[in-house]
Design a protein that fits this description.
single chain; 99 residues; mainly alpha
Length: 99
């Protein structure tokens, strides 16, 4: 009975030491992961602020870039008139007869 008790106690001490080391490793890993999470959250917050600023700037620029209320046909006609006037100006600058 004493031999079984001694064997049990030895096995228990070894098992306890292994589990204690496991606890220490897991605690260190948890601390590392917590630090990484804090860093990632800070990065996320900074990136979110940048995104919000970019979206606000986009919303500010959007009205000046989008010609609301002008149909496609009107834009095509206006572009055609502009091209014709530029061609006429080129002919004038080249000294060609305007007729």
């Amino acid at each position: 009975a004493q031999k079984q008790y001694d064997t049990f106690m030895t096995d228990s001490k070894v098992d306890k030491a292994a589990k204690q080391k496991d606890i220490e490793h897991k605690a260190a890993k948890k601390q590392d992961e917590t630090q990484a999470l804090t860093t990632k959250n800070a990065d996320l917050e900074g990136t979110q602020k940048e995104l919000d600023a970019a979206l606000a700037y986009f919303d500010k620029l959007k009205p000046s870039c989008v010609d609301a209320g002008v149909s496609y046909e009107d834009r095509v006609a206006r572009r055609k008139e502009e091209i014709e006037s530029l061609q006429e100006a080129l002919r004038i600058l080249n000294g060609e007869d305007i007729a």
